[in-house]
Design brief:
With 172 residues, the chain is α+β, with helices and mostly antiparallel strands. It is built from two helices and eight strands. The N and C termini lie far apart (77 Å).
């Protein structure tokens, strides 16, 4: 066997081993990371992970100046809705293939509920969330559709059009 063939085989084996090691390091719970629409599609939130805990923050809302007006805490009711943490303290449970032990904040009511998150089958385009008090039997399930590249393109075009309109003085 020629030296070039041996070197090529060794390099190929090293690359395959490295790819497998990288795949093994990826946490299966990270599939939830990303941006999602609210069920009414009037805003978006983004799920991030820090130190094994998954959280979700509001990153966009139809009314960019909206306040968290339904919050029962008078001080918190004055804060902007964009930026609040609506999903808190979720831990991925590999056995159940879902995120548990977290809470979801409902900006429409100002209430916080226990919550579980999951994907149906292998469809990672729609994240399901069940908010409840006490037992999950007594709760409500919502569907959060993942924000696509096409969605982001349309949002950017809307923002650019609004900026141009404002620039030209038509937005007054």
């Amino acid at each position: 066997m020629k030296l070039r063939n041996v070197v090529g085989m060794v390099v190929a084996l090293l690359l395959v081993g490295a790819a497998q090691a990288m795949a093994a390091d990826k946490d299966p719970g990270d599939v939830a990371l990303g941006k999602y629409w609210f069920p009414k599609k009037n805003g978006q939130f983004e799920i991030k992970k820090e130190k094994g805990i998954y959280t979700g923050r509001v990153i966009a809302y139809d009314d960019a100046d909206a306040l968290d007006k339904h919050n029962p805490d008078p001080e918190l009711a004055k804060r902007k809705f964009i930026g609040i943490e609506m999903l808190s303290d979720f831990k991925y449970d590999a056995k159940k293939n879902q995120w548990n032990s977290g809470t979801i904040y409902d900006g429409d009511s100002g209430k916080t509920y226990n919550c579980s998150l999951w994907f149906e089958e292998d469809d990672t385009s729609v994240l399901k969330g069940r908010g409840y008090i006490g037992v999950s039997l007594f709760g409500r399930t919502e569907a959060f559709r993942r924000v696509t590249a096409e969605d982001e393109k349309k949002e950017k075009e809307k923002e650019e059009a609004a900026a141009k309109e404002k620039e030209s003085g038509k937005g007054k």
